[in-house]
């Protein structure tokens, strides 16, 4: 079957949407220059979900030529949120299409967008690289021919580093930068991965690193590791574990103590222990399985408390005195540490272990950090909140301080639980039995 250009244009204007739909499927399988026809159909029909799907298929098909995505720059389309979402999906699909003309066509369209919509340009650039294969990325990177496109990349580099730009624009710009190579992105990593940066910016930079730094990522991650906050570190862990050879580097770092075992969420360790890869399971079991306690003597000393008869009322008073600064039970105390309401389900012996040896197993959000401010002050405690511009650190004496990110000089995890060791010093064997009886009495 063959249509002349005029015939196609008239079919694209056919009053029956069924005919227009058929035309799109015909185009998906043909290599005709169909840019103009597609532009007409997009303007007319992009509000219809089925037509949208058919347009995306026709515009990004295996046989598509360079002209099919010209409509990306259509001003009418960008006026509505639906239209913008449609363009974004289309560009994302184009980036993932194994046809080099399609990616290039999308880049052409993006670079033609009007200057005043630079935020949307970054967003589209980000969409273009989001699902692109390594080969497609390499092709897109080489595609420097269009001066406009290079300008756009430059602007993305600038915005990504600009502390005065909005967080959303910076994140879009960083996402768009997967188009650059690791070397070109050095300044982004140096700046955006600091604790002084908003969390979303740090996370976007980590995601970028995982896209563009297949060889360099592990070393860089290890270098910045101690200064990551718990939320960012969770993302860093996922990045680290996302490729087989990075995972090896990660496990090696744990073995050498460069990464503390407490830095990894026990739930994450649990998942690794179920890895389909046997040698990974064995390694993880070896590294994390045996819990070494430095507090064996203390634990042994308090064993009699498990059999002594305890008085829950006396226990409640001890709780109030020694524990309520961080735990809340029956309306008494503060919810800083873990919730103890269901603790008795784990058995009295476990409870005792947790009290005497808080570092046996710590969730990362409960780690103690040491923060130095640019004014030279050192704060130690747990990070209880993070906003784009500040972190809140809870000190051991119960006070909280909000530190603007701009005033953070360094932030380091201690690898230790915020729950201190040695709480038992104030609690004799009988008192411990009372405390356990109280914790066991909570319904
Ligand atoms: C300075 C704060 C602080 C004090 C004081 C404190 N805890 Fe904790 N506690 C925590 C934090 C933070 C965690 C969670 C991290 C961890 O498991 O190490 C925790 C965890 C626990 C757990 C384990 C909970 C779980 O789900 O794994 C138990 C049990 C516990 N605390 C009991 C106590 C008792 C009993 C006292 C008083 C003798 C006490 N804690 C005093 C901060 C504190």
Summarize the structure in words.
- Strands 6-5-4-3-7 form a five-stranded antiparallel β-sheet, with no helix packed on it.
- Among the domains are: 5-211, Leucine-rich Repeat Variant, CATH 1.25.10; 296-361 and 422-441, Cytochrome Bc1 Complex, Chain D, domain 2 (Orthogonal Bundle).
- With 443 residues, it is an alpha+beta fold.
- The protein has helices at 5-12, 17-28, 35-45, 49-59, 81-96, 100-111, 118-130, 134-142, 147-161, 167-176, 186-192, 199-212, 217-224, 230-240, 244-255, 266-273, 278-289, 296-301, 312-323, 348-356, 429-441, and strands at 328-329, 332-333, 367-373, 378-386, 390-395, 400-404, 408-417.
- The mean pLDDT is 86.
- Helices cover 52% and strands 9% of the residues.
- Bound molecules: heme C.
Please name the defining characteristics of this protein.
single chain, 443 residues, alpha+beta, Leucine-rich Repeat Variant, Cytochrome Bc1 Complex, Chain D, domain 2, five-stranded antiparallel sheet, two-stranded antiparallel sheet, 21 helices, 7 strands, elongated, binds heme C
Task: Summarize the entry for a quick read.
With 443 residues, the protein is α+β, with helices and mostly antiparallel strands. The chain has 21 helices and seven strands.
């Amino acid at each position: 079957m063959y249509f002349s250009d005029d015939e196609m244009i008239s079919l694209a204007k056919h009053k029956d949407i069924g005919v227009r739909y058929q035309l799109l499927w015909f185009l998906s399988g043909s290599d005709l220059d169909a840019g103009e026809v597609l532009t007409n159909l997009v303007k007319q029909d992009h509000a219809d979900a089925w037509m949208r799907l058919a347009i995306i298929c026709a515009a990004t098909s295996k046989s598509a030529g360079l002209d099919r995505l010209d409509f990306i720059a259509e001003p009418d389309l960008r006026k509505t949120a639906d239209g913008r979402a449609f363009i974004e999906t289309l560009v994302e699909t184009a980036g993932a299409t194994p046809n080099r003309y399609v990616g290039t066509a999308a880049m052409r369209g993006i670079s033609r967008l009007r200057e005043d919509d630079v935020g949307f340009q970054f967003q589209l650039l980000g969409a273009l690289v989001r699902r692109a294969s390594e080969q497609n990325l390499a092709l897109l990177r080489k595609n420097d021919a269009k001066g406009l496109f290079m300008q756009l990349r430059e602007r993305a580099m600038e915005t990504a580093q600009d502390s005065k730009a909005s967080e959303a624009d910076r994140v879009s710009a960083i996402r768009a930068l997967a188009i650059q190579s690791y070397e070109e992105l050095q300044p982004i990593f140096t700046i955006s991965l600091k604790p002084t940066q908003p969390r979303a910016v740090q996370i976007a930079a980590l995601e970028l690193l995982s896209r563009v730094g297949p060889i360099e990522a592990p070393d860089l991650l290890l270098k910045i590791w101690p200064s990551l906050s718990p939320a960012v570190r969770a993302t860093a862990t996922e990045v680290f574990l996302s490729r087989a050879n990075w995972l090896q580097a990660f496990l090696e770092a744990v073995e050498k103590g460069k990464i503390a075992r407490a830095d990894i969420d026990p739930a994450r360790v649990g998942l690794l222990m179920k890895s389909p890869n046997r040698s990974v399971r064995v390694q993880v079991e070896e590294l994390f399985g045996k819990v070494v306690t430095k507090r064996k003597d203390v634990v042994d000393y308090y064993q009699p408390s498990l059999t002594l008869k305890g008085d829950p009322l006396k226990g409640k008073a001890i709780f109030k005195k020694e524990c309520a600064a961080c735990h809340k039970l029956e309306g008494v105390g503060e919810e800083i540490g873990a919730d103890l309401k269901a603790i008795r389900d784990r058995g009295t012996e476990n409870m005792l272990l947790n009290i005497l040896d808080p570092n046996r197993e710590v969730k990362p959000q409960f780690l103690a950090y040491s923060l130095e401010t640019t004014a030279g002050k050192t704060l130690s405690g747990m990070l209880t909140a993070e906003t784009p511009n500040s972190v809140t650190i809870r000190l051991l004496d119960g006070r909280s301080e909000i530190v603007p990110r701009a005033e953070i000089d360094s932030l380091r995890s201690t690898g230790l639980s915020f729950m201190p060791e040695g709480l038992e010093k104030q609690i004799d064997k009988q008192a411990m039995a009372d405390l356990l009886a109280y914790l066991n009495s909570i319904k």
